[in-house]
Amino acid sequence: MHYKSTRGQVAGVGFIDAILMGLADDGGLLVPEHIPQVSAETLKNWQSLSYAELATEVFSLFVNDEIPRSDLEKLVQDSYGTFRHPDVTPVRKVRDDLHIMELFHGPTFAFKDVALQFLGNLYSYVSRKTGSVIHILGATSGDTGASAIEGVRGKEGIRICILHPHQKVSKVQELQMTTVDNENVLNLAVNGTFDDCQRIIKELFADVDFKHQYHLRAINSINIARILAQTVYYFYAYLQLAQQGMTGKLNFSVPTGNFGDIFAGYLAQRMGLPIHKLILATNENNILERFVNEGVYQPGEFRGTYSPSMDIQVASNFERYLFYLYGENTAEVATLMELLKAEGKIVIPEDKRTAVNAEFAAHAVENDECLAVISKYYDEYDYLLDPHTACGVAASDGLTSADEVTVTLSTAHPAKFNEAIALCEIKQTYPEQIEALFSKPQHQTIVDGTNEAVRDKLVQFF
């Protein structure tokens, strides 16, 4: 398998080089040169596999011979052996028509662990095998940072710098990042929003000379390994329900701000997974919902919400979807991205909008609705949702019918967002790993939201 850029100036890149490149050198995002197909017979054969065994099978479709099978199996086992649940991403039945896939059983209690435990181990493997210097640079709206840091802290040959928006993540998210005291970890709290952090990251990676000089590697979902790892749990959820004799059309409802998590579902669907409907759930930062429902992609005014990990106006994975929406026409994608940069929006024609509506449904959840859903499901089903998962459930409730079965992705443990839970007058007990954070000292540096301010800190650190 080789990889190419959505903008057409980079192609023929091997798997390991694609992981190391992160953002393509032409400013685009890397995608597989072809999408491997999974047959109904293969899906049936996969039903008895454990999560780690399934992950190995899926990864092997994209890795080919660059990583020996035995090494890949060990990478996968090391990555998911850290999870607290034997199923890694268990599927919980709430109603006959609604299941919750819990993606928060990893070290930092967030779905990002599923991809970043693997990517952290993969970077360590590549560093050992090739003697490469690995300097990881990433931005987070809350969960990516802690998961990425946990994946590589203390590992020889790797240094990591994470940007997060100062005072715009939950307290637990902040503590999970900033209480880490390892010499290879730098936390930068940026005066600005997550979109500012993400812009800085993309522009620094787009400076190819700087990127190569300091050996910068991407940990954000611009890195194709993140997407590939996330496709696995879509397959796993389907296979778990198929084993239980699922009837009805299968939907996935996905809380998303950066389009990465739901794009992984879209990729799984294109590989052959029989998904009926991909439901895009967002909050009041509803750029993606407006795109699906109106055909206009235009960043709006930033709003702070009870689901801060989705407080995003510029979705970094959106370009990958445009690539497929426009029939893999890289010239058109490059033109659209230039248009977005120049005019601040993209408007797609009616035929493309029809195609989008055939693939996605979308719902934006306001703050009051988010809290109402948390309260309702706690009272009626004795199930405590975090505010992001609550957005996914709200979207599912509003966009599905009785003959459909929906799996809502639960992206984080509710303990990470007690600010919202407390507003519902629900008292929860923190897991001991999270409770312990509050007594630890923090390590972070506050910087201005400019490329220059961040660049200066990186030069000192790397």
In short:
By secondary structure, the chain is of the alpha/beta class.
Protein described:
Belongs to the threonine synthase family. It is an enzyme of class 4 (lyase). Pathway: Amino-acid biosynthesis. The two termini are 32 Å apart. The longest helix has 20 residues, at 224-243. It is globular, with a radius of gyration of 20 Å. Helices cover 47% and strands 16% of the residues. The mean pLDDT is 95. The strands form four sheets. A six-stranded mixed β-sheet has the order 3-4-14-9-10-13, with helices on both faces. The chain has a five-stranded parallel β-sheet with strand order 8-5-6-7-15, with helices on both faces. Strands 1-2 form a two-stranded antiparallel sheet. A hairpin with a 2-residue loop joins strand 3 and strand 4 (98-102). It has a domain at 91-109 and 225-423: Rossmann fold (3-Layer(aba) Sandwich). It is of the alpha/beta class and 462 residues long. It has helices at 15-21, 40-46, 51-63, 69-80, 112-130, 143-152, 171-178, 194-206, 208-213, 224-243, 260-271, 287-294, 318-325, 330-343, 350-359, 367-381, 387-399, 418-423, 432-435, 451-461, and strands at 3-5, 30-32, 91-95, 98-102, 134-139, 158-165, 185-191, 216-218, 249-255, 277-282, 296-297, 346-347, 360-364, 404-410, 445-448. Helix 3 (51-63) packs across helix 10 (224-243) and helix 10 crosses helix 11.
